[in-house]
Amino acid sequence: MQRICVLGSTGSIGTNCLEVIRAQPGRMSLDAVVARRSWQALGKQTQEFAPRWAVLSDEGQRNVVAADAFSTRTEVLFGADAIERVAASPEIDTVVSAIVGAAGLRGTWAAIEAGKRVCIANKETLVVAGPLVMELAQRSGATVLPVDSEHSAVFQALQSGRRADVKRIVLTASGGPFRGWKAERLRGVTPAMACHHPTWNMGQKITVDSATLMNKALEVIEAKWLFGLDVSQIEVVVHPQSIVHSFVEFVDGSVIAQLSPPDMKLPIQYALTYPERVDGLSPRMDWRSQFQLDFEPPDPENFPALRLGYEVAARGGTCGAVLNAANEVAVERFLSDSEAFDFCDIPTACRAVLEHHNFDPSPSLDELVRLDGWAREEMRTWR
Ligand code: MG
């Protein structure tokens, strides 16, 4: 029985993850759930799964929650330190890291340090601290597995050849709701328009990231660290149907792809059961009706965030932490007041903050955390 802790259990990935666990009762058990503030939803999860622990990372919730919302078999804990304790507990085998943004870093770090199987759905961990995280995993013997659909696809395709024989990988991008739009038309788009994704149903922040292509930029950085590739080996192709989740091209010219309908339960389940595959809830391809798969090159002229991703991946060091933090606040600013902070300001402001920071090629974790705070403050006052 695999004992699982889900960091971010009430979010979009988290609830999908609980569906996967619910469908594998003999194989997986949910032993810890973690959320920031959503105590009602967290309470419901404990009523169903009776995990050993439930953690609310926002300390202030201590005075807000109704104790009877939680299962009597669950111990309720508060604060960020509690996340680290639970994630590193010997009674947990696997940690699913699905807390949005840089907030997920500490719990994920603790789990890797403790040598767990760590399923990374929160790409920020690798974007911010990729080299440190991979190095730590090597030392501790932790297994780091991707949940991000593109990276899961690459990981699955990599099983068909030797690592040394990989020529390049190709990450697919849906192109988001503004695919084909030019910069003039992008200026002035509203948060409601940016939050409407054509193929994936996800949280708000990542949906805006898909619209700017910043999500793909972050994924290029994530792929570089996760698979130990050179930036020149990572390509992006726009594929609006989101059926092919990525490609791996080997030195002989053979290209292996992973296909499935757009649904996160498959990559989540694969990360939990790897190297095994089990029957599950994920929707199947329907080969009886005619359908089309389209591919087109990305448009970095009108979606300049993608270029930022390549530059940051190539430069490494402190750049990932700064880009990630700057982008998080830029998206918040756009969502809360798009008249004052335009959709097109997101990549422009991110570049400005990035160019303005004190670059360090091999920072410590503390330095990354400090720079994360600095970049947020810079973005709050940008203009
Ligand atoms: Mg993705």
Write the topology of this structure.
Layout: E1 2-7, H1 12-22, E2 28-35, H2 39-49, E3 53-56, E4 75-78, H3 80-88, E5 94-97, H4 105-113, E6 117-120, H5 124-140, E7 143-146, H6 149-158, E8 166-173, H7 183-186, H8 191-194, H9 204-212, H10 214-227, E9 234-238, E10 244-250, E11 255-259, H11 265-273, H12 305-315, H13 319-336, H14 345-356, H15 365-380
Parallel strand pairs: 1-2, 1-5, 2-3, 3-4, 5-6, 6-7, 8-9
Antiparallel strand pairs: 8-10, 10-11
Helix pairs in contact: 3-4, 4-5, 5-10, 5-13, 10-12, 13-14, 13-15
The chain binds magnesium ion (MG).
Explain what this protein looks like in three dimensions.
- By secondary structure, the protein is an alpha/beta fold.
- It has two domains: 2-146, NAD(P)-binding Rossmann-like Domain (Rossmann fold); 152-261 and 288-315, no CATH class.
- The chain has 15 helices and eleven strands.
- The chain has helices at residues 12-22, 39-49, 80-88, 105-113, 124-140, 149-158, 183-186, 191-194, 204-212, 214-227, 265-273, 305-315, 319-336, 345-356, 365-380; strands at residues 2-7, 28-35, 53-56, 75-78, 94-97, 117-120, 143-146, 166-173, 234-238, 244-250, 255-259.
- The strands form two sheets. It has a seven-stranded parallel β-sheet, sandwiched between helices. Strands 9-8-10-11 form a four-stranded mixed β-sheet, covered by helices on one side.
- Helix 5 (124-140) packs parallel to helix 10 (214-227), helix 5 runs antiparallel to helix 13 (319-336) and helix 13 runs antiparallel to helix 14.
- The protein is globular.
- Bound molecules: magnesium ion.
